[in-house]
Amino acid sequence: MAPPHSPSLLGAPAHCPSLLGAPAHCPMAPPHSPSLLGAPAHCPMAPPPGLAPPLCWRRGKHVAVAAQAGLDAPGLLPMVETFCARAMRVAEADLVQQLRSVRPAKEKRQWVHGILETIQRCSHVLEVSIPVKRDSGHWEVIEGWRAQHSQHLLPCKGGVRFCESIGIDDVKALAALMTYKCAVVGKSVRAGKERELEKITRQFTVEMAKKGFIGPGTDVAAPDINTGEREMSWIADTYSRTLGYKDINAHACVTGKPISQGGIHGRVPATGRGLLHGIENYINNTLYMNLIGLSPGFPGKTFVLQGFGNTGLHTMRYLHRCGACCVCVGEVDGAIYNSSGIHPKELQDYKTEHGTIVGFPKAEPYEGSVLEVPCDILIPAAVEKQLTKENAHRVQAKIIAEAANGPTTPAAHEIFLQRNILVIPDLYVNAGGVTVSFFEWLKNLNHVSYGRLTFKYERDSNYHLLMSVQQSLERTLGKGSGEIPIVPSPEFQARVAVSPGLSWVAGTA
């Protein structure tokens, strides 16, 4: 949580290229290409004669030229526009071909260019100034933004971020990334991002509500850097008590809430779990692993983690369970290294007690850059623009899984392609959070717990399983002794055999 003097709130939503009916083989689709948006800047797919390229292409071209000249993009927004431009160049021919219209070819290309131009534009940006009286008695004005990248499909979706180093361009860039991320995982929501504490959060919620930038059917917020269940519950409570007081779906205005307030099991580790599945789809593929010189599977693989927040912790837990070994973890205040491996639960307990990973007794302090530690898998799970032209040549990993938003600059990405390093893009591999948020949103709209809908099915399934075991034992072992009853223990009955519907409600009231 940023300190009370944090000067601004960051917010941003978006919409996705599925709004355009992007084909399954579009570069914005899931993983059949090791580098999803990795088409080189010199891709020959140029706009037809007589047609000006979309704005994103024009901006992206300038950034691409800078990257080729050895310069990194000046900010997150130009980075996103560069990758967007590459994707559009690759996708354009397929999109034109997919059109079933009898229009002339030139008219089809014009239509596709118009759609691509629309996709890259940020639809709405809200900027607010919130005067806050500090505990010391002096007044301070806090700035906040929320951007809605696209409203083609509603609601918009995106995180709330408390951060001092964020500006309006960063908010717009994060919103655009959410659009593409939602498209990759096929969710019919679009995107958003935000910034400072309870008083500011509630005031910011009111300002967003007055302008239509929050609501269960328009714009759904979610946790991000320095925010979590507490901040989400503040937002939901504020909206439901103010402009949303007549809306029965008011608590669906935000996801990532506590379970007691309409949250969903699995939301907290969702991004980390998504990282596991995203990496798994590549690391278990023999073809991809042969291309980069690794054997398939997690066992025996080493990985390095930059950032030990919510995403980093749960990514570390899931990869550890699959047999991978974490050799180095870095945070803003220091890094630790152990060639034999670092246990996630032990490190989590130490950080919970001490507030830092520095001094962890089962690892040595590491003074160098964690991004350059020899390993099989590098996971940047901190902030944007960590892998740049300056350090890309020193990265020793074979796989880079982008857990953070925009951790790789275009210039660095070109270097990784030349070095045959597999880059799994953020807009695919860290989409686990927004996927589970989508189901929390649906749960809030349905006003029914998923557990209540499945209790009877789970109970019957477990009893059928027990009966199957009993019958198998009787056929093989009980020929002379009759029945061999399988009786559920009291703990099993309490956990599984719960009556559905009214009985469940009465028993838990």
Topology of helices and strands:
Elements (H helix, E strand, L loop, with lengths): L7 E4 L43 H14 L7 H23 L6 H16 L3 E10 L5 E10 L7 E7 L5 H18 L12 H13 L8 E5 L5 H13 L28 H14 L2 H7 L9 E5 L3 H12 L3 E7 L2 E4 L6 H11 L9 E3 L10 E4 L18 E3 L8 H9 L3 E3 L1 H4 L2 H15 L3 H27 L13 H6 L5 H8 L1
Describe this protein's structure:
This protein is of the alpha/beta class and about 500 residues long. The chain has three domains: about 1-265, Leucine Dehydrogenase, chain A, domain 1 (Rossmann fold, 3-Layer(aba) Sandwich); about 270-435, Rossmann fold (3-Layer(aba) Sandwich); about 450-509, no CATH class. About 40% of the residues lie in helices and about 15% in strands. It has helices at about 55-70, 75-100, 105-120, 170-185, 200-210, 230-240, 270-285, 285-290, 310-320, 345-355, 410-420, 425-430, 430-445, 450-475, 490-495, 500-509; strands at about 10, 125-135, 140-150, 155-160, 220-225, 300-305, 325-330, 335, 365, 375-380, 400, 420-425. The chain has a seven-stranded mixed β-sheet with strand order 9-8-7-6-10-11-12, sandwiched between helices. A five-stranded mixed β-sheet has the order 2-3-1-4-5, sandwiched between helices. Helix 1 (about 55-70) crosses helix 2, helix 2 (about 75-100) packs parallel to helix 4 and helix 7 crosses helix 13. Mean pLDDT is about 75; it is low at about 1-70, about 185-195 and about 495-509. One of its GO terms (biological process) is L-glutamate catabolic process. It is an enzyme of class 1 (oxidoreductase). Its EC number is 1.4.1.3. It catalyses: L-glutamate + NAD(+) + H2O = 2-oxoglutarate + NH4(+) + NADH + H(+); L-glutamate + NADP(+) + H2O = 2-oxoglutarate + NH4(+) + NADPH + H(+).
